[in-house]
């Protein structure tokens, strides 16, 4: 099975795997045995209650289940209210790649947490994407646009930008090669001739 580049979370998606590798600040709510190696600053074999370390999303999600909350998760600052207000004011000037290369995909995972910020994060992602989408497409359709613009886009927007550029190139190619005279199909020509013969015989 080929690897998929689809944005939608998928087991075989490289982008999805990389997005879930992003780290989250976590605080342990109980002592955990034989996991001391997760804390590089600790020499203990165990993780003590109250220890704060950063864990990848996929691990933090497993330890933060509703059945047994082993850790509490802190939302990264780029998804907190201060940054949400910046994106709300003018999302098109923000360098998403500098903030988080998988801004939308990682954010969609955070929106699933049982956290007070989860719902505002989801709403912010939708509005930010809607506001930036038109500009990304304008850049993709404008042949004179600075190619370095793509460096300011997150992974999803870069994919859309690339697809837009390719679509524009294919359209230009079709317009240039399709300017010759269009000819009627043989079946249509034969039908017209038969009609003329029938009319002349009347």
TrEMBL record:
* Localization: Nucleus
Lineage, top-rank taxon, reads Eukaryota
Q: Which GO terms describe its cellular component?
A: GINS complex
Task: Name the CDD domains on file.
Answer: GINS_A_psf3, GINS_B_Psf3
**Which is a GO BP term held by this UniProt record?**
mitotic DNA replication initiation
GINS subunit domain location is 79-175
InterPro entries, A to Z: GINS_A, GINS_bundle-like_dom_sf, GINS_Psf3, GINS_Psf3_sf, PSF3_N
List each copy of the DNA replication complex GINS protein PSF3 N-terminal domain by range. 12-64
Q: Can the keyword Phosphoprotein be found in this entry's annotation? A: no
Q: Which UniProt keywords apply?
A: DNA replication, Nucleus
Q: Which family does it belong to?
A: Belongs to the GINS3/PSF3 family.
PANTHER family according to UniProt = DNA REPLICATION COMPLEX GINS PROTEIN PSF3
Instruction: Provide the assembly information.
Output: Component of the GINS complex.
Chain's role:
Required for correct functioning of the GINS complex, a complex that plays an essential role in the initiation of DNA replication, and progression of DNA replication forks. GINS complex is a core component of CDC45-MCM-GINS (CMG) helicase, the molecular machine that unwinds template DNA during replication, and around which the replisome is built.
The protein's name in its UniProt record: DNA replication complex GINS protein PSF3
